[in-house]
Amino acid sequence: MAKLSIPHDAFVFVGDGRKALFLRNEGDEKFPNLRTERVFVDETPPAHEPGSDAPGRGFFTAGPRCGGVDQTDWQELGEQRFAKDVAGALERLVRDRKIKALVIAAPPRTLAELRRALHNEVKSRVVAEIDKDLTKMPVHEIERHLAA
Q1: What stretches of the chain show up as alpha helix (H) in DSSP?
Q2: Which whole number is the average pLDDT over 12-35?
Q3: Which of 2, 26, 122, 131 has its CA 20 to 30 A from that of 142?
Q4: Domains contained in the chain, CATH given
Protein backbone atom coordinates (compact mmCIF):
# COMPACT_ATOMS: atom_id res chain seq x y z
CA MET A 1 0.00 0.00 0.00
CA ALA A 2 1.33 3.44 -0.93
CA LYS A 3 1.70 6.03 1.80
CA LEU A 4 -1.57 7.84 2.44
CA SER A 5 -1.48 11.61 2.03
CA ILE A 6 -3.97 13.45 4.24
CA PRO A 7 -4.13 17.16 3.31
CA HIS A 8 -4.33 19.92 5.92
CA ASP A 9 -7.93 20.37 7.16
CA ALA A 10 -9.00 17.06 5.62
CA PHE A 11 -11.41 14.98 7.68
CA VAL A 12 -10.86 11.37 8.65
CA PHE A 13 -13.91 9.29 9.47
CA VAL A 14 -13.25 6.19 11.59
CA GLY A 15 -16.28 4.00 12.28
CA ASP A 16 -17.44 0.45 12.90
CA GLY A 17 -21.25 0.47 12.76
CA ARG A 18 -21.66 1.37 16.44
CA LYS A 19 -19.05 4.07 17.03
CA ALA A 20 -17.83 6.85 14.76
CA LEU A 21 -15.01 9.35 15.15
CA PHE A 22 -14.77 12.50 13.07
CA LEU A 23 -11.15 13.64 13.06
CA ARG A 24 -9.63 16.70 11.37
CA ASN A 25 -6.01 16.97 10.26
CA GLU A 26 -4.55 20.09 11.84
CA GLY A 27 -1.11 19.10 10.55
CA ASP A 28 0.03 18.79 6.96
CA GLU A 29 0.38 15.95 4.47
CA LYS A 30 3.82 15.02 5.74
CA PHE A 31 3.05 15.22 9.48
CA PRO A 32 -0.65 14.58 10.17
CA ASN A 33 -2.01 15.85 13.48
CA LEU A 34 -5.52 14.46 13.92
CA ARG A 35 -7.89 16.17 16.34
CA THR A 36 -11.26 14.80 17.39
CA GLU A 37 -14.11 16.96 16.13
CA ARG A 38 -17.04 14.71 17.00
CA VAL A 39 -17.84 11.25 18.37
CA PHE A 40 -21.00 9.24 17.65
CA VAL A 41 -21.91 6.19 19.71
CA ASP A 42 -24.90 4.07 18.76
CA GLU A 43 -27.18 3.18 21.66
CA THR A 44 -28.67 0.07 20.03
CA PRO A 45 -28.85 -2.65 22.70
CA PRO A 46 -26.97 -5.93 22.14
CA ALA A 47 -28.58 -8.40 19.74
CA HIS A 48 -29.72 -10.74 22.53
CA GLU A 49 -31.88 -8.08 24.25
CA PRO A 50 -34.57 -6.77 21.83
CA GLY A 51 -35.62 -10.04 20.25
CA SER A 52 -35.33 -12.39 23.20
CA ASP A 53 -38.46 -14.43 22.41
CA ALA A 54 -38.33 -17.60 20.37
CA PRO A 55 -38.75 -17.11 16.61
CA GLY A 56 -42.36 -16.84 15.51
CA ARG A 57 -44.30 -19.43 13.58
CA GLY A 58 -46.34 -18.77 10.50
CA PHE A 59 -48.95 -20.78 8.63
CA PHE A 60 -48.02 -20.71 4.98
CA THR A 61 -50.07 -23.61 3.64
CA ALA A 62 -53.65 -24.73 3.97
CA GLY A 63 -52.70 -27.91 5.83
CA PRO A 64 -51.46 -28.69 9.31
CA ARG A 65 -47.91 -27.68 8.41
CA CYS A 66 -46.40 -24.52 9.67
CA GLY A 67 -43.06 -22.87 9.08
CA GLY A 68 -40.63 -20.90 11.14
CA VAL A 69 -40.12 -17.21 10.68
CA ASP A 70 -36.57 -15.89 10.63
CA GLN A 71 -35.56 -13.88 13.63
CA THR A 72 -34.88 -10.20 13.02
CA ASP A 73 -31.21 -9.28 13.15
CA TRP A 74 -31.49 -6.18 15.33
CA GLN A 75 -27.74 -5.66 15.27
CA GLU A 76 -27.66 -5.47 11.47
CA LEU A 77 -30.67 -3.13 11.38
CA GLY A 78 -28.99 -0.90 13.95
CA GLU A 79 -25.78 -0.80 11.91
CA GLN A 80 -27.70 0.09 8.74
CA ARG A 81 -29.51 2.91 10.55
CA PHE A 82 -26.24 4.08 12.08
CA ALA A 83 -24.59 4.17 8.63
CA LYS A 84 -27.44 6.34 7.33
CA ASP A 85 -27.15 8.68 10.33
CA VAL A 86 -23.39 8.97 9.87
CA ALA A 87 -23.79 9.53 6.12
CA GLY A 88 -26.17 12.40 6.89
CA ALA A 89 -23.67 13.89 9.35
CA LEU A 90 -20.89 13.61 6.76
CA GLU A 91 -23.08 15.33 4.17
CA ARG A 92 -23.78 18.23 6.56
CA LEU A 93 -20.10 18.42 7.42
CA VAL A 94 -19.03 18.57 3.76
CA ARG A 95 -21.59 21.28 3.00
CA ASP A 96 -21.22 23.40 6.14
CA ARG A 97 -17.44 23.23 6.53
CA LYS A 98 -16.63 23.08 2.79
CA ILE A 99 -14.56 19.91 3.24
CA LYS A 100 -12.27 19.25 0.27
CA ALA A 101 -10.87 15.83 1.29
CA LEU A 102 -12.24 12.93 3.32
CA VAL A 103 -10.62 9.66 4.37
CA ILE A 104 -12.90 6.82 5.49
CA ALA A 105 -11.66 3.94 7.66
CA ALA A 106 -14.16 1.21 8.54
CA PRO A 107 -14.51 -2.58 8.53
CA PRO A 108 -15.60 -3.96 5.13
CA ARG A 109 -19.27 -4.45 6.09
CA THR A 110 -19.61 -0.93 7.52
CA LEU A 111 -17.72 0.50 4.54
CA ALA A 112 -20.24 -1.15 2.20
CA GLU A 113 -23.19 0.28 4.18
CA LEU A 114 -21.60 3.73 4.06
CA ARG A 115 -20.99 3.54 0.32
CA ARG A 116 -24.70 2.86 -0.19
CA ALA A 117 -25.75 5.69 2.13
CA LEU A 118 -23.30 8.46 1.15
CA HIS A 119 -24.50 11.38 -0.95
CA ASN A 120 -22.66 11.89 -4.27
CA GLU A 121 -21.24 15.20 -3.03
CA VAL A 122 -19.60 13.37 -0.12
CA LYS A 123 -18.38 10.52 -2.36
CA SER A 124 -16.62 13.05 -4.58
CA ARG A 125 -14.56 14.25 -1.57
CA VAL A 126 -13.34 10.77 -0.55
CA VAL A 127 -9.60 10.55 -1.24
CA ALA A 128 -9.03 7.16 0.42
CA GLU A 129 -10.92 4.22 1.91
CA ILE A 130 -9.34 1.88 4.42
CA ASP A 131 -11.18 -1.37 5.10
CA LYS A 132 -10.04 -1.85 8.68
CA ASP A 133 -11.56 -1.26 12.12
CA LEU A 134 -9.56 1.49 13.83
CA THR A 135 -12.24 2.58 16.32
CA LYS A 136 -10.64 0.87 19.31
CA MET A 137 -7.32 2.66 18.77
CA PRO A 138 -6.43 5.96 20.43
CA VAL A 139 -6.10 8.90 18.03
CA HIS A 140 -2.27 8.88 18.05
CA GLU A 141 -2.34 5.20 16.99
CA ILE A 142 -4.79 6.02 14.18
CA GLU A 143 -2.38 8.75 13.01
CA ARG A 144 0.51 6.32 13.04
CA HIS A 145 -1.49 3.64 11.21
CA LEU A 146 -2.58 6.07 8.49
CA ALA A 147 0.92 7.52 8.08
CA ALA A 148 2.59 4.09 7.77
Answers
A1: 74-97, 108-117, 120-123, 139-147
A2: 92
A3: 122
A4: 11-43+72-147 (3.30.420.60)
Backbone angles phi, psi at 135, to 5 degrees: -65, -25
Calculate the alpha carbon distances from 123 to 1, 15, 59, 94 in Å.
Answer: 21, 16, 45, 10
Residue of 35, 7, 31, 6 lying closest to 21 (CA atoms) = 35
Is residue 113 predicted with pLDDT exceeding 70? yes
Prediction pTM value: 0.77
Measured CA to CA, the distance from residue 128 to residue 137 in angstroms comes to 19
CA-wise closest residue to 50 among 72, 70, 69: 72
Contact 41, 19 (CB under 8 A): yes
Average pLDDT on 129-139 reads 94
CA dist., res. 103 & res. 132, Å (int) = 12
pLDDT at residue 45 in the model: 59
